[in-house]
Design brief:
Blueprint: H1 36-45, E1 60-61, H2 73-80, H3 90-103, E2 107-111, H4 114-124, E3 132-135, H5 140-147, E4 152-155, H6 176-185, E5 190-196, H7 209-221, E6 226-229, H8 233-243, H9 252-261, E7 265-269, E8 280-284, H10 287-300, H11 311-324, H12 327-346, E9 359-363, H13 364-367, H14 377-389, E10 391-392, E11 394-396, H15 398-401, E12 403-405, E13 408-410, E14 416-420, H16 428-443, E15 451-455, H17 461-464, E16 466-469
Parallel strand pairs: 1-10, 3-4, 3-5, 5-6, 6-7
Antiparallel strand pairs: 2-8, 7-8, 9-14, 11-14, 12-13, 15-16
Helix pairs in contact: 1-14, 2-11, 3-11, 4-5, 4-10, 8-9, 12-16, 14-16
The structure holds pyridoxal-5'-phosphate (PLP).
Pyridoxal-5'-phosphate (PLP) binds near residues 115 and 229.
């Protein structure tokens, strides 16, 4: 390895290596790096939208950590145990038992993925115009599921979450003072608190147990249902153990149980810490709410013991939930992500600190500082990263969140490029390749061309927008 290529002048500059993972590779999927001329052609054909790049033309795919995990041999074997009975299948009861063991909740409702859990819960709570749902920061689908019902989704994350450089251990926390005053100013109108752990929209930042306890007290005093959006619960638990006073010697399973005991239930996308490619669930203790959801779901998801999933999917999810609180695995995962962050930081690449649980977020406005916002600097950088190295990343910034008022753009505070790291998929060699490629592009960043939007869809712009380069 030529260390100069990744901007390290000597071995003493080298960050500590991450803990190696507690598994070995049994099966591989081949990937290739298409030649540069082909990558340019692909980008053009894709209308400079990374969602349109065929995945077989991607060498390393950092588009998302959702549904992209590698399953273990135990999960693949569990698929064979899938009971495909329409109702009351064995596989459901196995999943229910594991969720009860890991989270402690009484009732379990499988769903085809996280957003169905959101849809059903907000429907059962009858969220409507004039109501509020409050969060540290809502994930897009969670926000959309609140807002399609006419209610308003309100983010009350601590102000420091918007400061890229501010290093706080729990930058995903809710601002408790803001929460208290919002609840008292809108008495009776806050219909649910949804706490996202870890906070995906804020860069995978964790929430502390102390913060969760305070939210829980406010929720109970005011009779507001308190749910965790727990897609990345295990990563949050790992951060609590390693960053919060009093938890260093505690077992991860115990910390998880304490965290879940403070909430009334969870909405879960199993595609992250469930270590599966599809699936999700709701788990809760409120019998009345459970029965409402059961009745609603038959129309859209299926019978309550399968919720849109095959029996084998339930088995794989049950096994994934058993595996994910392995401390050795979580350490190697979080350290692998942080190692990539450190390699990029050593090369001066501007990024969000501290490093998140599931990915590294680059600061697109500094990366392509020569481009005005009207030329989509972060998205242009994501396209340049593909052109440069066949790595797919995604813009989480203006393209996703900017609004138009009277023909003028209103830009969001943060304009980021997310490098989401799939679980158990890429090795340290891949991490070096990513760090080397992005470092090199950063050194040549003045070559990144701005983009002009040629097609602007009316909703969820980033999925379907088309562009051309500004020569
Ligand atoms: C925090 C969070 N909540 C909910 C969801 C939605 O889950 P799904 O994609 O399974 O519908 C996601 C997906 O990325 C997420 O990150």
């Amino acid at each position: 390895m030529d260390f100069n290529k990744i901007g390290l002048s000597s071995l003493s500059d080298f960050p500590d290596l991450p803990t190696p993972p507690p598994y070995k590779i049994k099966m591989v999927e081949f990937t290739e790096i298409p030649p540069i001329e082909e990558r340019r052609k692909i980008l053009k054909e894709a209308g400079y939208n990374v969602f349109n790049i065929p995945s077989e033309k991607i060498y390393i795919d950092l588009l998302t950590d959702s549904g992209t995990s590698a399953m273990s041999d135990q999960q693949w074997s569990a698929l064979m145990r899938g009971d495909e009975a329409y109702a009351s299948a064995r596989s459901f009861f196995r999943l229910k038992e594991v969720i009860h063991e890991v989270m402690g909740y009484e009732y379990v409702i499988p769903t085809h993925q996280g957003r169905a859990a959101e849809y059903l819960t907000f429907n059962a709570l009858d969220l409507k115009k004039g109501d509020f749902a409050v969060s540290n920061q809502f994930f897009d689908t969670t926000r959309a599921n609140v807002e399609v019902r006419g209610a308003k989704a309100v983010d009350l994350v601590v102000e420091e979450a918007y400061d890229l450089k501010r290093e706080l251990p729990f930058k995903g926390n809710i601002d408790i003072e803001k929460l208290e005053s919002f609840v008292s100013e809108n008495e009776g109108k806050v219909k649910i608190i949804v706490l996202t752990v870890t906070n995906n929209s804020g860069g995978g930042q964790p929430v502390s147990m102390e913060n969760i306890r305070q939210i829980s007290e406010i929720a109970r005093e005011n009779n507001i249902p308190f749910f965790l959006d727990a897609a990345r619960f295990a990563e949050n638990v790992y951060f609590i153990k390693n960053r919060e006073r009093g938890y260093g010697d505690r077992d991860l399973k115990e910390i998880a149980r304490e965290m879940f005991s403070l909430a009334d239930g969870v909405l879960v996308s199993g595609k992250k810490d469930g270590l599966v490619n599809i699936g999700g669930f709701i788990a809760l203790n409120d019998k009345e709410l459970y029965w409402k959801i059961r009745q609603l779901m038959v129309v859209t998801e299926g019978f309550p013991t399968y919720g849109g999933l095959a029996g084998r999917d339930l088995e794989a999810l049950a096994q994934g939930l058993r595996e994910v609180l392995n401390e050795h695995y979580l350490r190697s995962r979080i350290e692998q992500v942080a190692f990539l962050g450190k390699l990029l930081e050593k090369q001066g690449v501007p990024l969000l600190k501290p490093f998140g649980g599931h990915g590294i977020y680059l600061d697109g406005l500094s990366f392509a500082s020569h481009l005005p916002r009207e030329q989509w600097p972060s998205h242009a950088t994501a396209c340049a990263i593909y052109e440069y190295s066949a790595i797919r990343t995604v813009e989480i910034g203006s393209l996703m969140f900017a609004e138009k008022k009277d023909g003028e753009w209103i830009w969001p505070k943060l304009d980021l490029i997310r490098l989401a790291i799939p679980r158990r998929v890429y090795t340290l060699d891949h991490i070096f390749y990513i760090a080397n490629s992005i470092g090199e592009l950063y050194r040549n960043r003045h070559e990144i061309k701005g983009l002009r939007m040629t097609f602007e869809p009316p909703v969820l712009r980033h999925f379907n927008a088309l562009f051309e380069p500004i020569e």
